[in-house]
């Protein structure tokens, strides 16, 4: 079950309780946050918590990073929305700076071509954009017969919540009750490049995968997976699309996770941290000959590329250009994984996966669920969230410092020791 999908128990509306006007599409931990700064938040009663979730990686730069708050505040005093009916003075600068940062990490579209970007808002919209563009490219450039485009995707994927995207999810919580679904997707086991190759035929326009599956529990594929996907896609004339919405922008110690394997996708989807935890900002970046299939009126969004989003996005790009956050993720990530490995050695965890400041950790189900562990952490002043079963994801803001990380790891050890003792 996906943690982002857990519904509140029916008892949330027990007779006699105050009416609850909020739909129950989440089951949050019992904490009400009032303020946040850096890696810390404070609840309405003044209690402080170390945030080891960082808004599912939307807060890679922490809460209210001064440079991001300054950029947003300054822009609030100028203009916030124009719609794409008119240009504004930050739209092209944002496109330029983002493609300068990401361009060298993706395919460019041939000699002399420079990468392009399409600005959107949420992660799901970026994924939808990539799917639409890949299909259009398939019909107009590759010559796929009308209505037959297929896209290969991985089991355990999480790419968002729209009707088309849940059409190729294999999480019953994400899908059940939302059919009829969008056709045109082929699910294959994640991490198995042979299965991808076998699923490709003349109708296939793209392979769409997360470089590392976040929501599934930070599942890292075999080292030869992405290089093999790149080779297979090249040989078969298929686009390789990396969904870097959660894995990208510093989390793994590199700007894109695909850099870990030296692979340049044709298109990359970005979101979450691109908005610095301030406003929703997403984008598709990649080959100009692919994104070039978009023509006026064929795709868009009222808020996509709005001035406030571009101001924050530019400030995010500036933070990433220094390489400082990527380096922090590498250095502190090594420390985090050493601490987590010691919990496995001591029999407190059954498994740990991940890279950089990103980890999926497995608890023995006999000792409790991921939710039990998150509640035990909450009681110790640490915020984390289960992904499914007895797995939780740790994704501290990249601005966390080593003493704070150690404090979080001490709380984790204490919580796990208590769960072990209680069974
Ligand atoms: C890999 C990936 N893609 C897409 C999304 C969807 O992003 P959003 O919730 O902003 O629509 C997520 C969100 O968790 C994600 O992890």
TrEMBL record:
Pathway: Amino-acid biosynthesis; L-proline biosynthesis; L-glutamate 5-semialdehyde from L-ornithine: step 1/1
UniProt-listed Enzyme Commission number(s): 2.6.1.13
A molecular function (GO) term: ornithine aminotransferase activity
Keywords of this entry: Aminotransferase, Pyridoxal phosphate, Transferase
Domain of life the protein comes from: Bacteria
Cofactor or coenzyme needed: pyridoxal 5'-phosphate
Record-linked NCBIfam families: Orn_aminotrans (TIGR01885)
Family: Belongs to the class-III pyridoxal-phosphate-dependent aminotransferase family.
Protein name: ornithine aminotransferase
GN (gene name): rocD
């Amino acid at each position: 079950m996906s943690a982002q999908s857990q519904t509140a128990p029916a008892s949330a509306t027990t007779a006699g309780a105050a009416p609850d006007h909020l739909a129950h599409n989440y089951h949050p931990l019992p904490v009400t946050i009032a303020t946040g700064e850096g890696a810390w938040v404070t609840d309405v009663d003044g209690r402080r918590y170390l945030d080891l979730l960082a808004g599912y990686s939307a807060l890679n730069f922490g809460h209210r990073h001064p440079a991001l708050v300054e950029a947003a505040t300054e822009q609030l005093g100028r203009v916030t929305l124009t719609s794409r009916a008119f240009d504004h003075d930050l739209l092209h600068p944002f496109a330029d700076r983002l493609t300068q940062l990401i361009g060298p990490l993706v395919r460019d579209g041939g000699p002399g071509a420079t990468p392009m970007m399409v600005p959107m808002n949420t992660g799901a919209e970026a994924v939808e954009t990539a799917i639409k563009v890949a299909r259009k490219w398939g019909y107009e450039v590759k010559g796929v017969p009308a209505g037959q485009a297929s896209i290969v995707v991985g089991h355990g994927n999480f790419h968002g919540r729209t009707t088309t995207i849940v059409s190729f999810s294999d999480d019953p919580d994400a899908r059940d009750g939302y059919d009829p679904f969008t056709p045109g997707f082929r699910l294959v086991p994640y991490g198995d490049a042979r299965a991808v190759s076998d699923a490709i035929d003349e109708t296939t326009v793209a392979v769409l995968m997360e470089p590392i599956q976040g929501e599934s529990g930070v599942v890292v594929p075999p080292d030869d997976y992405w290089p093999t996907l790149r080779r297979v896609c090249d040989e078969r004339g298929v686009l390789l699309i990396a969904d870097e919405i959660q894995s990208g922008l510093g989390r793994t110690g590199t700007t894109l996770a695909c850099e870990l394997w030296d692979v340049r996708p044709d298109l990359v989807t970005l979101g979450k941290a691109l908005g610095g935890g301030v406003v929703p900002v997403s984008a598709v970046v990649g080959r100009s000959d692919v994104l070039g299939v978009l023509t006026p009126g064929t795709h868009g969004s009222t808020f996509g590329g709005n001035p406030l989003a571009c101001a924050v996005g530019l400030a995010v790009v500036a933070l990433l250009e220094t390489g400082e956050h990527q380096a922090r993720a590498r250095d502190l990530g090594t420390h985090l994984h050493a601490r987590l490995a010691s919990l496995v050695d001591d029999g407190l965890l059954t498994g740990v996966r991940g890279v950089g400041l990103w980890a999926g950790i497995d608890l023995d189900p006999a000792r409790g669920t991921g939710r039990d562990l998150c509640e035990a952490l909450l009681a110790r002043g640490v915020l984390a969230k289960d992904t499914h079963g007895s797995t939780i994801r740790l994704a501290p803001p990249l601005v966390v410092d080593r003493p704070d990380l150690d404090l979080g790891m001490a709380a984790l050890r204490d919580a796990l020791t208590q769960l072990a003792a209680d069974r």
